[in-house]
Amino acid sequence: MQHLVHNTIQYNVALPKGFDPSEKYPLVIYVHGAGGRGHDPANIGFSYQLAQYAEERDLPVMVAAPLCEMDNWYMCFSELIEFIRFAAQMDNVDPDRVYLMGASMGGYATWALLMCVPELIAAAVPICGGGMAWNAGRMKDVPVWAFHGVDDPVVSVAESISMANALRACGGDVKLTLLPEVGHNAWEPALYEHGTVEWLMRHRLPRRG
Question: What pLDDT, in 10s, does the model give residues 98-126?
Fold first, then answer.
């Protein structure tokens, strides 16, 4: 895992096992929750888990994780959007296979990013988040698989239900997995038990031009 900086955003990036600099790879961008805030990208612990998961399963995918050094993502949201645009054009990234995964505070940011830059995202996995359900039509063309622990004491499961229902109502491609007897940490079962990275990698943006 490398620690790099783009403008005001520090970020982690991991290359796939057997990386070939002449190839283009899909990219999973992980948007962390409140526990990752601060000034040290090493605090974004789940980005390491994502990269290890991909390596152990020989998945040819890059992982990137921007760092929030503010109180929340909305305080630096324009910078986050600019980072997503930058990441989609990084060397060795296939711009038609850029994915979002975010949990908790990052789950909220993931829903918001889908409304702001849906044209850049091939598929997304928002976890224990929520958002502006009334604006779901903005992201109806992006396949979404949302997760939420039924017993989440931090973010109500109603948040994900509301977003999924709104997206479904406007014709979006969405599925919602509610995890029984799971609290706030829905990101680990979403990764290890449901094959979310593999699911993301099956999607690509429609051919352009």
Answer: 999 999 999 999 999 999 999 999 999 99
The predicted structure's pLDDT at residue 207: 60
Give the span between the Cα atoms of 178 and 56, in whole angstroms: 26
Contacts 24+ apart (CB under 8 A), 19-24: 19/92, 21/91, 21/92, 23/60, 23/92, 24/92, 24/93, 24/94
Residue 131, beta-bridge partner list:
none
Tokens matching residue 10: 């520090």
- pLDDT per residue over 147-171, tens digit each? 999 999 999 999 999 999 999 999 9
Map 78-113 to HEC letters: HHHHHHHHHHHCCCCEEEEEEEEEEECHHHHHHHHH
**DSSP conformational letter for 2:** E
What is each CA distance from 11 to 33, 61, 86, in whole angstroms? 14, 17, 12
